[in-house]
Each structure stands twice: as C-alpha cells, then as structure tokens.
From TrEMBL:
Similarity section: Belongs to the filamin family.
Gene that encodes it: FLNC
Signal peptide range: none
Name of the protein this chain belongs to: Filamin-C
Keyword Repeat: yes
GO biological process: actin cytoskeleton organization
Lineage: Eukaryota, Metazoa, Ecdysozoa, Arthropoda, Chelicerata
C-alpha cells in the first residue's frame, strides 16, 4: 500500500538574486533535535542586521528567536516540534544568502510526536460515505498539533482512488479522494509511524 505525502510550505517566496557579504554558520543549519533549542549564526559584513529574515519549510513551523550579538551578527534559535526533513530559507533584504535554502535533518522524539498526532482530528461525511466518480472531501484539523506537513494518506478498496491534499492556509487541509468503483474502502491517514485518531476509516462508496 502506497502513501501519498503532503509537505506543506511554511516559508515565504524569495527573490533569486544572492545577497552579498552575508554568511551563515553553525550546526543548526544541518542537524537539529525536536523539542530542543537549536541555533546558527548569520554574519552581516556590510549593512544592518535588521535586514535578516528566516523561514522554515517542513513538517512543523518552529518558533524562531533572534539575538543581536552586537558584532554585526545574529544568533538564530529555533525549536522544531517534530522530526523530519526541513529547509531553512535565510534572506537579507529579500534576497537569499549564499547556500540558502539549507537542508536540515531534525531528529524527532517518538513519544512527543505521538502526542501531537493524537491532537489531529478528521471530520466530514466522506469519512463514512463516498460517491463514485465524484471528488469526496475530508477535513483534517492540525491546529492543535502544530504540524504543517508530513501527513501521508493511502486508500484501499475495489479501485485505486485518486487522492490529493489541499492546504487551507489556516492549520487545516482537505483530503480529497475520487473512487472509480462502488464498494467498501479503507482510508489510512498517518504522520510518520503514527496513525491519526480513527484511522483507518471505513468508507462505503455508492
């Protein structure tokens, strides 16, 4: 059974020109631990540090804190909620710095991730009944979990339905499926190794 995965971007769009004389250093650009403070440093050789901006793209939206080191550099501290693959976008005056985006691997805490996944809820008539040849929609609420991506979906039954995600940009998303044949189906929804509450959902398609 194959799962379709949704990775929701939490970053803002950046221009492609490279910002001059701004560099980033630190272990926090490459690896990090979930639920812990991780950091890296941005050095501005010319200009004001107020032009620095940082955005994350990945399974969660980390809390970010800037600290002025008073030496033309800023320490960036962040706390990701869950493990997984992230991208760190660092820009200066709306231009990406050298090396951005940085590819980050976050090591997760299984117990904490499980607790967060338990906060995800699903609703909608399409969790129980669906229509053949029609796009059926399920609402997935991730607001309390703080998880912005990394959800996976799979569906099994008499046919292989088309499945897709739609981000509502408010902490929720729509899961859509379109079965080609009537019958009994099972909808699986999970994050990492943990199933969302109620999954798999038994659905009768007519």
């Amino acid at each position: 059974m194959l799962f379709a995965r949704r990775q929701v971007s939490t970053s803002t769009s950046l221009k492609m020109a490279t910002a001059p004389k701004v560099t980033c250093h630190g272990a926090g650009l490459v690896s990090a631990d979930a639920d812990f403070k991780n950091s890296f440093t941005v050095f501005v050789q010319q200009g004001k540090i107020g032009g620095i901006s940082v955005a994350f793209e990945g399974p969660s939206k980390p809390e970010i804190v800037f600290k002025d080191n008073k030496d033309n550099s800023v320490e960036v501290t962040y706390v990701p909620k869950v493990g997984g693959d992230y991208k760190i976008h660092v820009s200066y005056e709306d231009k990406p710095v050298k090396g951005s985006p940085f590819f980050l691997k976050v090591k997760g805490n299984a117990a904490n991730t499980k607790k967060l996944v338990e906060r995800i809820t699903c609703s909608g008539e399409a969790l129980k009944q669906g229509k053949v040849g029609t796009v059926n929609e399920v609402l997935v609420n991730c607001k309390d979990a703080g998880i912005t991506g990394g959800l996976a979906i799979a569906m099994e039954g008499p046919s292989k339905p088309e499945v897709s995600f739609e981000d509502n940009k408010d902490g929720t998303l729509k899961v859509k499926y379109r079965p080609a044949k009537a019958g009994n189906y099972r909808l699986h929804l999970k994050f990492g190794d943990f199933a969302v509450a109620g999954s798999p959902f038994s659905i009768t398609v007519s």
